[in-house]
Amino acid sequence: MAFTTSLQSRLMSSFLGERVIQSAMNPLQPLHRSGCPSPKDVSKQVPRALSNLADILFNKRNQGSLQTDKRKRLQKGKVSPRRPVPSHVPKPPYVDSRQLPGISSGPEVHDAKGIECMRAAGKLAAEVLSFAGTLVKPGITTDEIDQAVHQMIIDNGAYPSPLGYGGFPKSVCTSVNECICHGIPDSRPLEDGDIINIDVTVYLNVSFLVHSKYMFSQIHSYYFWKVLSTDFFQSSLRSTFIIQGYHGDTSATFFCGNVDEDAKKLVEVTHDCLQKAISICRPGVEYSRIGKTIHDHAAKFKLGVVRQFVGHGIGRVFHSDPVILHYRNNERGRMLLGQTFTIEPMLTMGSINPVLWSDDWTAVTEDGSLSAQFEHTLLITENGAEIMTQC
Ligand code: MF3
Ligand code: CO
Ligand code: CO
Questions:
Q1: Which of 18, 86, 271, 325 is the most exposed place for a label (fewest CB within 10 A)?
Q2: Around 256, how many Cα atoms within 13 Å sit in the side-chain half-sphere?
């Protein structure tokens, strides 16, 4: 998900290069960098003081049941060296570029061919996520999950989108317990009772066969592409193929062993928030209804909705317009037929404010309370929304 902060009047993506001062005591504070492009169609944020007041007035959360005393705070582990990607796997343009990617302007709206590509990328992401979920057990390290995810993605001829994204060092995000998002896989073994969000994004390159005069294109499955991308075929066919990459982005929160009832409820409500938000999507609906739907449902259970991280347009680029807020808001903008974007609410049991670790990525709740998240990539269809990230 992209990152936004309440101290700025406009929403920005963390991937624009914005960085925060890390502190165990203070919530996120942005360091402003000059020269950062502001995304078009971005929105105003409620100042934190006001939003906290609103939280106190309207959404008093379960401060009494945090149980952080029983659970050890998440500790940083050792991050293994970067995993290689075979040279035949096409990489997204941001990899190895010194430029930090941002939210690119303009929505992703696809024709029939583009929709097929999005379906293929989404399906692969969903299959990888489902496989990753089967690995969640006490004792496995998040680095081992990263390794398995990395392998499955490259075995399918795709690129793990997070690897090298704005300097992110691993192929998947693993966010344990109070980690809200962007957890970096490391040497920490999962413990009985942990909850873990696994966020998988793949960049799948689909090859189009181009015939001289007509742009007749044929979409090949990624399995087929794997065969075609041997050196021999590449050298003989390169001129007749256009390679286009599409991102599929999805996440889910899994239980490790025996999880307590409060944590289960948090995960269940977060899941339901996403499903309810998906159900109101169709052409012409205001994006702001997504935030209202999620916020209303979370509030019924006295759970908080994180504001600093948002959903985003996705397709040929990883993060694009529109910015999707998960909390009540008055932003303008309506859903378009053929458009793809993510919804990825993060709910917390206590504070909704993140603190960033010194690795510049790992975002944890300031009070150590649990956080859960689910994410899907969606396509706006005539009658509603199709979930692209389904097996
Ligand atoms: N998958 C995340 C999202 O939902 C983004 C992760 S980018 C990374 O948008 F660099 F942190 F991996
Ligand atoms: Co996302
Ligand atoms: Co994601």
A1: 86
A2: 23
